[in-house]
Amino acid sequence: MEQKKVKLQTNKGDIVIELNEESAPVTVKNFLQYVEDGFFDGSIFHRVIPDFMLQGGGLNAEMQEKSSRDPIINEADNGLKNEKGSVAMARTNDPDSATAQFFINHKDNDFLNYEGPDNPGYAVFGKAIEGMDVVDAIAQVETTRKGMYDDVPVEPVVIESAVIA
Fold first, then answer.
1. CATH of the domain at 9
2. pTM recorded for the entire structure
3. Which one of 4, 12, 33, 138 is most buried, counting C-beta atoms within 10 A?
């Protein structure tokens, strides 16, 4: 089966994500709906930690949270690992709380993987197949604290558009 791809056009360059619909069907469907709705256009990577991850998809450049749809189930027990370049859903302490925010792993983050009910992990649903140089560049931007958020890029890293590639 041909895997669907999404191109994130950022003000730092393009990142192409290959989605794994077979392993994470609910998560991929959710992500694609946000892409089709134009939800990610104008959102930012609001949390950037080198040698960890880049998180985005939920806030605009003014650091205001965008209104998202209902949360989805956590598909972290799908066998996909939080390794460098993989893309996973961000969530709160509630495993089934992911909505629109996602992150790109900047290194292998084994501690984010599913280990069972006591460590439900973070659902990987794709991987960056192009633009890891862009991911690396974003990971190196200067960050600061803004309001209640740490690790916020001083100059906004904007997802100008997200399109099905």
1. 2.40.100.10
2. 0.98
3. 138
